[in-house]
Amino acid sequence: GNLAARLEGVNKTYGTRILFSAATVEGLANGISLRPVDRVRVKGKAQPVDIFTPCDDPNLIAQTERAMAAYRNADWPAARAVWQQIRADYPDDTLAPVFLGRIDEFERDAPAAWDGSVALEKG
């Protein structure tokens, strides 16, 4: 579908290879461990979509879930602390720099009506 095609391009933003939307995840057979990546707003869709990437490291998944919870609550210091821990534990991680950069931006200029989602420029 349209969303899948859009998500293909979004991999570049996050340095991921495969992204699934929440709807796809619900249809997947259990047994694929997934790491949350972001909550995105796609052109032409009112509701933000949660996106995930396959990950077989339970620690990284748990840390990312903690980081996301703080981030979605606009608790920038807590979110930054967990993302920095992720970056320390996983120097090659591609999500941590994206979120650390975003948090720096938000602390200077907080987003209005924060719902934890980011608009995708593409599409």
What's the short version?
With about 120 residues, the chain is α+β, with helices and mostly antiparallel strands. Helix content is about 50%, strand content about 15%.
Q: If you had to describe this structure to a student in words, what would you say it looks like?
A:
The chain is of the alpha+beta class. The chain contains five helices and four strands; from the N terminus they run αβαββαααβ. It has helices at 2-14, 22-27, 58-72, 76-89, 95-108; strands at residues 20-21, 34-41, 49-54, 118-119. A four-stranded mixed β-sheet has the order 1-3-2-4. A hairpin with a 7-residue loop joins strand 2 (34-41) and strand 3 (49-54). The longest helix has 15 residues, at 58-72. It is globular.
What key phrases describe this protein's structure?
123 residues; alpha+beta; 4-stranded mixed β-sheet
Fold blueprint:
Elements: H1 2-14, E1 20-21, H2 22-27, E2 34-41, E3 49-54, H3 58-72, H4 76-89, H5 95-108, E4 118-119
Parallel strand pairs: 2-4
Antiparallel strand pairs: 1-3, 2-3
